[in-house]
TrEMBL record:
The keyword Transmembrane helix appears for this protein: yes
Protein name per the record: MFS transporter
Localization: Cell membrane
Gene3D superfamilies associated with the record: MFS general substrate transporter like domains (1.20.1250.20)
């Protein structure tokens, strides 16, 4: 591949990755304002984030077929266009628009998440490891910036809906980059083999991988949605609580880059996965039993969760890459793991919101994250450290 074309694809991947969590990260710091303006319960507010995650699950499951039909490059361009469209729809300050826009955003993120690896392998295979690390960091950077700026932007623009809509701008910039990439694309030459693989529902390893990703995803989206409101309830300002999510995101970056590499070199997936789950256990118990410890305050707990989930997601995808025999099997197993993981995670914000309403507090809701850590622990023990290559059914 020509260096200039490879550079354009790299820019496109990073621009897309900046949007894979940003739009959803803008919502939690504004959740209190949204509830007040629309007159909705915590459960209803959480259902919006739940809908996004379930839409991500649907996108993950259909992503390989979309790639086979249009090509991975065109599918990725379309997916980030959906993120932009959904963000614009959320600019209307109404419950229907909030839900509709959030669902569209989730669908775009789900499709993109499955296909990023396919494009990296096809266009930037010589630097696949470095590029993968770069787009994970870009994804977390987008989340960090948006969660920190969501409340100040809402104040500056005069409303929560305008703040949510503003994040269509970086998505539209990514659309422009992918439009340039698509002009040089030959069509569905990437990802075609994906459609020849059924999702490996009966494979024991695939089920364990799905269980592991379920725990990680539930922790990510449960904490993303409800940790900030929990501290607002304790008297923190929405802006300060938004900074908690920024710290959570920043803590993920070094973890995502370093821990999967250490696990790969040592061949000890189980050891590192259990250590990351232990970070979540300690953090959740800390938030429930000692929410603001002396000196370090709540920042320690959100940083620990960030470290755990930052490495947890790439660890789960990395073990799939090492245990599957070919790219098509890897894509099928990843699609299953992410699809099931997002489905389970989609129930998290809704369940946590319902628990907030029922208990008039946040302790019970935060303990849902403890259950997510248990899922990771059980799956990591079952997966173990030894390499195995499961066969995927063909159609």
């Amino acid at each position: 591949m020509k260096p200039r074309s490879a550079a354009l694809v790299l820019v496109g991947l990073l621009a897309l990755s900046l949007n894979l969590r940003a739009a959803l990260s803008a919502y939690p710091p504004l959740l209190g304002d949204v509830r007040e303006a629309l007159g909705i319960s915590a459960g209803t507010a959480g259902a919006a984030q739940t809908g996004a995650i379930l839409a991500m699950a649907a996108g993950s499951l259909i992503g390989p077929r979309v790639s086979a039909r249009f090509g991975a490059v065109r599918a990725l361009g379309g997916s980030v266009a959906l993120v932009a469209l959904g963000s614009l729809v959320r600019g209307v300050p109404a419950l229907v628009a909030l839900f509709a826009g959030t669902l569209v955003i989730g669908l775009g993120i789900g499709v993109a998440g499955v296909l990023l690896t396919a494009v990296v392998k096809d266009r930037l295979a010589a630097r696949a490891g470095a590029v993968s690390g770069a787009y994970v960091v870009a994804m977390m950077l987008g989340s960090t910036v948006v969660s920190a700026l969501a409340v100040p932007v809402a104040v500056a623009l005069g409303g929560w809906s305008y703040s949510l809509a503003l994040w269509a701008v970086p998505a539209l910039l990514a659309v422009a980059v992918w439009a340039a990439i698509m002009r040089g694309d030959a069509g569905p030459h990437t990802g075609g083999a994906t459609a020849r693989r059924r999702l490996p529902w009966r494979d024991p390893f695939a089920r364990l991988a799905a269980t592991y990703q379920s725990g990680v995803s539930l922790t990510v989206y449960g904490s993303l949605t409800w940790v900030a409101p929990a501290y607002v309830d304790r008297g923190w300002s929405p802006a300060a609580a938004g900074l908690l999510i920024s710290v959570w995101s920043v803590a993920q970056m070094p973890s995502a880059l370093v821990v999967p590499s250490l696990a790969e070199r040592s061949g000890r997936f189980r050891r590192w996965a259990l250590l990351m789950a232990a970070c979540t256990v300690v953090a959740v118990l800390g938030m429930v039993l000692l929410p603001e410890p002396p000196l370090v305050g709540a920042w320690l707990w959100v940083a620990l969760i960030g470290v755990g989930v930052g490495a947890g997601f790439p660890l789960g995808l990395g073990v799939i890459a090492h245990r599957t025999p070919d790219p098509a099997a890897s894509a099928a197993t990843s699609g299953l793991a992410l699809g099931v993981g997002y489905t389970v995670a989609g129930l998290g914000p809704l369940l946590m919101g319902v628990l907030v309403d029922l208990t008039h507090g946040y302790a019970a809701a935060l303990l849902v994250l403890l259950g997510a850590a248990v899922l990771q622990i059980v799956a990591a023990i079952g997966i173990g450290d030894h390499r195995r290559e499961p066969a995927a059914a063909t159609t």
